[in-house]
Design goal:
Layout: E1 4-6, E2 12-14, E3 20-25, E4 31-38, E5 43-49, E6 60-65, H1 73-76, E7 86-90, H2 92-103
Antiparallel strand pairs: 1-2, 3-4, 4-5, 5-6, 6-7
Length: 105
C-alpha cells in the first residue's frame, strides 16, 4: 500500500520513497505538526508554523527520535544535528534530504 504524506499544505510525498510506514498528524490552525515513523524504527518530527524555528517564514523544524522515543539527532546524524537535537530554518528540499538520511540509518 502506498500513500502520500502532506508535509506542507501544498506539498505531498510518497511515503514508500522514504521508508515511512505511518504518520501522526497533530496539526492545528497555527502549526503543522507531523511525526513520520520509518521502517527502521526511527521517527522524525516535522513542524512548521507559529513558534517553530523558521515557521513564520514558511520554513521547517525537525527532530529525530530513536526506537524508545528519545531525541537522538546528535547521536545518529551528528553532521546534520551538529549543535542540538532540533534543527530549524530548513526549506522543503533540506527536509527531504534529512528524511532520506533517516531512512538509511
Amino acid at each position: 500500500m502506498s500513500y502520500m504524506i502532506a508535509i506542507s499544505r501544498t506539498t505531498k510525498l510518497k511515503a514508500k520513497d522514504y521508508g515511512i510506514v505511518s504518520t501522526e498528524d497533530n496539526s492545528d490552525d497555527m502549526v503543522r505538526r507531523l511525526k513520520l515513523n520509518f521502517n527502521n524504527g526511527f521517527s522524525l518530527s516535522v513542524i512548521s508554523g507559529y513558534g517553530s524555528y523558521g515557521g513564520e517564514d514558511g520554513l521547517f523544524e525537525v527532530a529525530l527520535f530513536n526506537k524508545m522515543g528519545e531525541f537522538c539527532g546528535q547521536d545518529e546524524l551528528p553532521d546534520l544535528f551538529e549543535y542540538d537535537d532540533v534543527v530549524g530554518h530548513l526549506d522543503f528540499t533540506e527536509v527531504k534530504q534529512i528524511m532520506k538520511r533517516v531512512s538509511e540509518i
